[in-house]
Each structure stands twice: as structure tokens, then as C-alpha cells.
Amino acid sequence: MTLEVRDNLPPVPRSPLQRFFPRKNDSGASSFTSFDSTDPNEHHNDFFNYALLIALYTLQGIPMGLSASIPFLIQQKIKTLAASAAAATTGVSTSTLAITDSAAASYNANAIFALCSWPFSLKLLWAPIVDAVFIRRFGRRKSWLVPVQSFAGILMVMGSSFVEHQLGLGPNVSLESAINVKGVTAFFFALYFLMATQDIAVDGWALTMLAKKNRGRGPVCNSIGQNLGYFLSFVGFLALNDPESSERVWRPLLGLPSNPSVGLVSLGGFLRIMGYLMIVTTTAVALFKQEAPTVPLKLERQESNTMWSLLPKQNDDDIDDKELDASEIGLRETYHRLWAVCQLPAVRWLFLILLTYRLPTALGDNVKFLKAVEYGLSRSTTALLSPTVILPLGILVPIVASKIWHGQPLCGQFMTGYKLRVTLAPLLDVLLLTTLQKGKPTTRNESIIFWSILVLSTAVQAIVSSLQFNAQMTFFAHRVDPAIGGSYMTLLNTAANLGGTWPASLVMWLVGHLTKAPVCSPESEGPPVCTAGRDPYFTLQLLFSALGCLWIFVMGGQVRRIANLPDEAWRTHLLDKESVDEESSMFRLTEFVNSTTAGLWKQGKNDTKGE
């Protein structure tokens, strides 16, 4: 008997480079090997996959950084409009009057703009579609990654002038031009929608791109990439857009003529640059990176029933968990599986934790630097903090934390960061803002104290945020059920993003509505007389810190409990049920064949006797 082995795997597309430069195997024949870690004999060499994931997450961080700079532009624009209105009505244009009149309006406007990030909190609604619909020859994740990133780049290039016009900026717009917050919010909402779709594809790709042994390092790539993208767009734009730093640093450095009224790069120009960068990077990924072939689950089960299953099994570390193909089970069944995940008690408790723990820290996360700029901190100084403090810590903290908490429950890292985040970080924030309220430092000692507080406050917030984010993403990567694929990871990330999105708009709204501007009356001689206003920041900070301590007391035990749950608590076992059903059907089919064969044999034997 001859055993025929048939290769039923779908063909893998070859890149242009591989058509001209095929790799050679040991026998000298040309062969193609994807960078995806699908071969356990590759010793889990994922260097190129790490680099690609970091690059993709960097592209994801670019719109985030740009959107983080918009609140400062809104604040400055409203302040300019308020100063112009004050000068027109009272004949006096003072910085104090402009600040107090514009504070409430700027926070209310930024509360609206904060809604632009909601697609990251709603992406679960279309995540199963991204999992189910794709072009097999092009690649399951690339089918979405390439067009979405390309469209995002085109949107940034083509919509750059629109954003400037909505913000009342640009060379042909007067300083008194009105600002349309809803228009710029709609633009960034669309951009976030595209990046949320990209995030679904990248998260799902990371589960199959990296070897199973290295899959836990995917969140580190996420953290590093998003920090790089955020730095590139947020810091790069604020530093190059600030007229003061452009005139003092960048123009002399580049040998450009003086122009103290404008920055080196406008918002529209920077959007175009980032858009072209995204298009070029996406083109490179489309041409030179291949995915591992998507093996239908049914085919794999058929192969597992052959005599090859009698061969010695590989090491468990090298056996990859296969992902259910959403294109085979259908969208309805995919949503059903996600609903089954939501019914797990462990997931329900995790949702409650993710949706509540960011509220006590929302003031420091979203308002602190806006309040610091309101008190006199320059935007260029704010931008300087990212490359010097936030970016290095965002890269180093996940690496150091993985060494410190290696082999320990991730809840220890998470809760350590949270305890510092609701106690030490708010204390340093209040100290920083109190120092800024007293005015700019005039002596050397005052400057040393001010910069020490500023750097320490920024560093502590960056460290604790990175500790929690890294612990959270690593926990997701270890607990996600690979049988549900990227949709499971998207479900958890959606809850995490929603937990940070809704408090942002809430605290902006609270600060805006609780701020009471001084009532100023003009005097015949001298400056106007103003009554004391109300700044709610410090009172709200005290209340939110107390709420954070209460959260630790109430929910801290649940965090430790779910962190120690076994993997079985996070599994739906839908795949196991299907396997049992298929085995039962196969058993019944085998019985039918055996009984039929036995009957035919018996009938043939009787016929022979009759003859």
C-alpha cells in the first residue's frame, strides 16, 4: 500500500524581493521562508517581527500624539479670542483677564474634542468583521492593514488644510477667526476609527507573527511603538510649531532666515509629513512582508486524524494554538463567541476593573499639563518633557519591570503602579501647579526647585502609567484564548480603552463647568477691579485621590484574585465542544460503515453457501 501525502495548504504569495532573491535551503534548492514564526525549528528568532510590530505600533501612535497637541492649540486660540474680546469691550487687554475668561471655555471645548478617541473604545463592534473578511492570498491581517493605513495617510495629507481652517489657523486666517471644535473633532474621530481598525489587525497579527514562546513580548513592542509614535508627532509638532523655540533653536541650527511670528512647521505641514510617512511605510509592508498561510481549522482537524498523528509529538512550547477562522464560522457565530467570552465571570470582573480604575487618575492624565500651561508653563517646555523624560521611561520601564516582576503575578506590578498613581503622583502635581501659580522663578535656587519638581512630577506619572499599561497588556496576552483570535484581545483592549476615554470627557466637563471666572469692572483710573474667581482643580484632585484609595480598598482583592485564576477560567471551550461533536459524528459514521460492511460480508457469505 502506498501512502499519498497531499499538500492542501493555500499558496503563499511571494514578495518582489523573494522573486528575484530566493533563499537557498541546505540542498541548494530555492525555498521561501516567511518572517512569521510558524516553524518551531527556527529557534523563535523573531528579531524582524519585533521590528515590524514596533514600526506598526509607531504608526498607530502618530495620530494619538497629534491629537494630544490639539488641546494646547485650542487653549491658545480661545485665550487669544478672549483677550481680543476683552480689549474690545473694556479697552484693556491683560493676560489675567484673558486667562480667566478663556479657562472655562477651553476646558468645555476640550471636553468635546476628547470624544475623538472613542473609536478605540467601540472597535469591538467591527472587530469580528476584520477577523472574518479578508483576501487569503494577500494575507489575513494585511488585507485590512494595508488599505486602512493607506487611507489614513491620504486623509492626513488631503485633510491638513481642513484641520487648520477648523482651528482658525493658517497663513490666510486672522487671529480673530472663530474656532470650530466639532469639525476638528470629526476629522480626528475618522482618523482614530482607521487606527482602531489597524489596531485590531496588528493585535491579531502579533498572536501569529511571534512564536508562542515570545508572544508575551508583544505588549512590550506595543508600548515601545506607541511611545515612539507619540513622541514623533506630539513632541515633534509642538517643538517645531512653537515660534519661540523655532526662532531660538531650529532656524539658527538649519541656517534659515528669521521669522519670529510663526513656527518652523505649521499644523497642516506636519500632518502632510506624517501622512506621507505612513503611506511609504505601508507600501513597504505590503511589498516586503508576508503572513503565514491561514490554515482552515477543518483541514487541520482532518490531517490530525491521519496516521501522521502517531508520530512523536513536539514540545508543548513549540506547538502553537490554532485560531478559529472567522471566515469559516461566520460573523454571527463570531459575535456569539465574543458574547460567550463576556459571560465568563473572570472577564466580567476584569471589565469592572478596567472601566473604573482610570477615573481617580483622570485629572492628572488629562488636565494637569493644560492647567500648567494656563499657569504659565510654555508649550515648548511641555514638549521638551517627552523626549527627555517620558519617552526614555516609556521604553525602559517595561523592560526593567519584566526583570523585577519576572515569574511573579502581574497584579503586584499593576497595584504597585496604581498605589503610587493615586497618592504620590497627585501630590507632586499639586506641588508643581502651586509653584507655577507663584510665577516664574527669578533666582537660581528657585529655578532648580522648579525644574526638579517638574521633572519629578512628569517622571513619576510616566513610570506608574507605564507599569500599569505593561502589566495590563502582558496579562491580556497570557490570558487571551488563541482559539478566538484577535477578537478576544480586541474585546479586552476595548474595555481598557473605554475605561480611559469616558473619564477624560467627564473631568474636562467638570473643570470647565466648575471654573468661575472673576467678575471685572472697569475703573475710571487704573486697571479694572476683579473679584476672586474659582479654580476647582485642587478640590477635584483631593476628591479623586480619596476615590482612588477607596478603589484600592474595594477592588484590590479582586485584582489579585483574577490574576491568580487558571487559564481555564478565561476559556469558553467552544472549540472543545466542536471537537467533541465532530468526534461523535465520526464515531457514528464509523459505526455505520462497520455495520454496513459486516452486513455485506455476511450476505456474500450466505450467497456463497447457497451456491
From TrEMBL:
One of its GO terms (biological process) is acetyl-CoA transmembrane transport. This is MFS transporter, PAT family, solute carrier family 33 (Acetyl-CoA transportor), member 1. It is found in: Membrane. GO terms for molecular function: acetyl-CoA transmembrane transporter activity. One of its GO terms (cellular component) is membrane. Keywords: Membrane, Transmembrane, Transmembrane helix. Coiled coil: none annotated. InterPro entries: AcetylCoA_trans_1-like, AmpG_permease/AT-1, MFS_trans_sf. Residues 1-35 are annotated as: Disordered. It is a multi-pass membrane protein. The chain crosses the membrane at residues 47-74, 144-163, 183-208, 220-240, 260-288, 384-406, 448-469, 490-511, 537-554.
